[in-house]
Write a structure and sequence with these properties.
mainly alpha; single chain
């Protein structure tokens, strides 16, 4: 589709960006509305599934649709994804029980995986690797903006309207994007005539789902090393072995193992995994520090976290333009990962005396580094593989980043809980808490100012000094625990910087036709050898 007029390309990309914004906002807007939804629908024990089911469904469909879109073209799948997402979003707003909402969110996840997978691959259809930088930067900016405005808008809606409108407010955007893509996105002939790898698809899903569930549940629903967690890991390993065996036998694998023989593909995906660990870890646990240690309200915490995303939007947009202009990316990748590592390391220096300003400029450093590195590894992978594998290669980036986020959040949570448990035992022993004050020695109380105030009002005046000492000790405990968790993020960034040093900087192609020309040359040479 490189031959299309530039105006038509831009119009198509506006529709693709609108599709991504529609899906991303529906993903981020839910967080701040959850307390209201739970109070209305009930099912407090199942609310985490609202996120988990979306993550599982989108992770599986992203990689599967990536391969199918290489065979049948992107247009059918982005239209199916948009249509299913619109329908699922509407039904989410009609849910009367938590089980219904979880089911509809699962369908949203299936659709979201289709949209994100085909949207990123569409850039490769429309533009050469050299031109993709600016568009990858804009797509990263879309994610950043959705992370900034989604939670804020969600809070505003539930404060002034029924929570159902968080799922309905963006439906017109979805309809417009659907119509634009249906009318403007060119249809392409079927590219391959191979059979669909059904067994490989099943085994791949059976590998991903138990692994994500194990990391999501470990340390929360079940203990690390429990029968449930170990059983899920064992199931994932068995499915992985079956998947590897199947992929070596089929002629049209859902995830060609030969791609991992490409060092650029493999290294870039491992770096994406490490970025996901650090990025999602910072996003998940930094609010704990801002609210629990500094004592900032939840509303202000959202605005503080905006600093990270806004700086990411700025740097990703600039870096995308620079890549397109210069055709170089390795030095920018090293700079971005280093900046991100420095920013996460600076989080470990925060303490109980830190202020919101201290948190803001540290988050801005992380955001700048993230914006510099986030778009790059999509480009390196797309540039390094044959055009016929563009979809599956692009979706692998999303899969590895999602896996990294799940693993990173779980491991950092385990580190945080381990440090807190050790320090809390010491704190409660030394403080000699009197009966009725044990609940105050729980760092979770620090996250709820109203509950904390209730404790203070119930404590007799003669015990007020002791309570203040306990609260101060709990803040120190939470600060130390989060510092230990952030050190794991620093470790992942050090590994990422080391790996990027070994990343081969391949010249960015100026046309997708180059892939087809290279394949034709290879086929001619193979025929000559067979004739000889």
């Amino acid at each position: 589709m490189e031959h299309l007029p530039i105006k038509q390309k831009i119009t198509i990309m506006v529709a693709v960006l609108a599709s991504m914004l529609f899906a991303a906002l529906n993903q981020t807007i839910v967080g701040t509305a959850l307390p209201i939804i739970v109070s209305d629908l009930g099912g407090m024990n199942y609310f985490s599934w609202i996120f988990t089911i979306y993550m599982l469904a989108s992770s599986v469909t992203a990689i599967l649709v990536g391969r199918l879109s290489d065979m049948y073209g992107r247009k059918p799948f982005i239209l199916i994804g948009l249509g299913l997402f619109i329908v699922a979003s509407f039904f989410c707003g009609t849910a009367d029980t938590m089980v219904e909402l979880i089911l509809y969110r699962g369908f949203q996840g299936l659709a979201g995986g289709m949209i994100f997978s085909t949207a990123f691959a569409s850039i490769g259809d429309l533009f050469s690797p050299r031109e993709r930088g600016r568009w990858q930067g804009l797509m990263a900016a879309v994610f950043g903006l959705s992370s900034v405005f989604g939670p804020t808008l969600g809070g505003y809606i539930v404060d002034h309207f029924a929570w159902k409108w968080i799922f309905w407010i963006f439906l017109p955007v979805g309809f417009v994007a659907f119509i634009l893509i249906m009318r403007l996105f060119p249809s392409v002939p079927r590219k391959e005539h191979g059979r669909i790898d059904y067994f490989g698809s099943v085994f791949l899903a059976a590998t991903i789902i138990p692994m994500l569930l194990a990391f999501s549940w470990a340390g929360n629903q079940y203990a690390w090393g429990s029968f449930q967690v170990n059983g899920l890991f064992a199931l994932s390993i068995v499915a992985l072995l079956a998947f590897l065996y199947t992929e070596r036998k089929v002629t049209n694998p859902v995830l060609p193992l030969s791609l991992f023989g490409n060092s650029v593909f493999t290294i870039s995906n491992i770096i994406g995994l490490l970025i996901g660990m650090a990025m999602f870890g910072a996003i998940m646990y930094m609010p704990f520090f801002i609210q629990g240690v500094i004592g900032t309200s939840a509303t202000k915490t959202g605005f503080i976290m905006m600093s990270m995303m806004l700086s990411m939007v700025l740097s990703s947009t600039i870096v995308g333009q620079l890549i397109t202009k210069t055709g170089k990316y390795k030095k920018m990748a090293i700079f971005g990962l280093t900046m991100m590592g420095i920013g996460i390391f600076s989080l470990t220096t925060l303490n109980t005396d830190s202020t919101n300003i201290d948190a803001i400029y540290r988050l801005m450093i992380i955001g700048l580094g993230l914006g510099c590195s986030f778009p790059i590894f999509n480009i390196t992978i797309q540039n390094a593989v044959a055009y016929k594998y563009l979809g599956v290669a692009t979706s692998s980036v999303q899969l590895f980043r999602q896996l990294g986020g799940t693993i990173g959040v779980s491991v950092m949570g385990a580190i945080m809980n381990m440090i807190m448990s050790a320090k809390m035992d010491t704190t409660t022993t030394k403080s000699g808490l009197q009966s009725g004050m044990e609940k105050a020695a729980d760092p979770k109380v620090l996250m709820d100012p109203e509950q904390l105030q209730t404790f203070k009002e119930q404590v007799p005046a003669e015990q007020e000094d002791m309570l203040n000492q306990v609260i101060s000790a709990m803040r120190n405990t939470l600060s130390d625990a989060l510092g230990g968790a952030f050190l794991f993020g620093v470790f992942t960034m050090v590994l990422a910087v080391i790996l990027v040093l070994f990343l081969k900087e391949v010249r960015l192609k100026t046309s997708n036709q180059e892939d087809e020309d290279e394949e034709n040359i290879i086929q001619v040479e193979e025929k000559k050898r067979s004739t000889v």
